């Protein structure tokens, strides 16, 4: 049984940086889960965050211990919900969670849609220049959910796996998308995974059309990565 810590946040203004809702606070007690996420949770840049296929963000709690080892001088920064996640658990990782997995959570049902794609904002907010590429290369990205059925949820209601709908783990999806050379067969495999998000399916399709992998620089490093 995996009981999640639950977090929500509102959009805040930051000096010399774009608005963001990355700063989250823990929710005590029940909260409504809507088609677009937890009631009271916000997203600033909806082209990249939120929406039906990205309603919830889950980041494994055990990754923080690894990150504290990588950045011992910044270890105080690496505790949930530093990555702006909505859910944090122990025992659920990219290796044992699969694209398309449907979980019962309280009165709701949620489905894994894609890995999280780390972006430059993590570098900025955690003051670690190469944090996003490290997460991507190590496969410690977390994942996103769509809401299949709404309802009341809480941290004292476990995430229970109901159905496994694909043979592609989140770890494998990260490897295919971010860490291996161009591979048409693997892109088609990822696109065929039941439950994959529309945006990830489109990205893989565009690779097949363009016969190349898109540049990750701007996402990982911001304007300096153009």
From TrEMBL:
What Pfam families does the record point to?
MOSC, YiiM_3-alpha
Domain (MOSC) spans 25-162
Q: Which domain of life is it from?
A: Bacteria
Which GO terms label this protein's molecular function in UniProt? catalytic activity; molybdenum ion binding; pyridoxal phosphate binding
Which InterPro entries does the record cross-reference, listed alphabetically?
Answer: Benzoxazolinone_Detox_Enz (IPR052353), MoCF_Sase_C (IPR005302), Pyrv_Knase-like_insert_dom_sf (IPR011037), Tri_helical_YiiM-like (IPR005163)
Q: Protein name, please?
A: MOSC domain-containing protein
């Amino acid at each position: 049984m995996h009981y999640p810590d639950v977090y929500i946040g509102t959009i805040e203004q930051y000096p010399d940086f774009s608005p963001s809702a990355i700063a989250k606070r823990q929710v005590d007690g029940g909260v409504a889960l809507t088609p677009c996420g937890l009631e009271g949770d916000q997203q600033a840049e909806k082209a990249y965050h939120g929406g039906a296929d990205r309603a919830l963000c889950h980041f494994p709690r055990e990754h923080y211990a690894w990150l504290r080892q990588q950045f011992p001088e910044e270890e105080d920064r690496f505790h949930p919900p530093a990555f702006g996640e909505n859910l944090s658990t122990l025992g659920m990782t990219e290796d044992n969670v699969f694209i398309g997995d449907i979980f019962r959570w309280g009165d709701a049902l949620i489905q894994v849609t894609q890995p999280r794609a780390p972006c430059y904002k993590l570098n900025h907010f955690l003051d670690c220049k190469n944090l996003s590429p490290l997460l991507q290369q190590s496969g410690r990205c977390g994942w996103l959910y769509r809401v299949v059925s709404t309802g009341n949820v809480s941290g004292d209601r476990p995430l229970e796996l109901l159905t496994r709908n694909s043979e592609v783990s989140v770890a494998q999806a990260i490897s295919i998308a971010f860490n291996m050379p161009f591979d048409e067969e693997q892109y088609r495999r990822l696109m065929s995974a039941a439950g994959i998000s529309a945006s990830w399916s489109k990205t893989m399709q565009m690779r097949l059309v363009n016969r190349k992998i898109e540049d990750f620089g701007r996402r990982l490093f911001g304007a300096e990565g153009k």
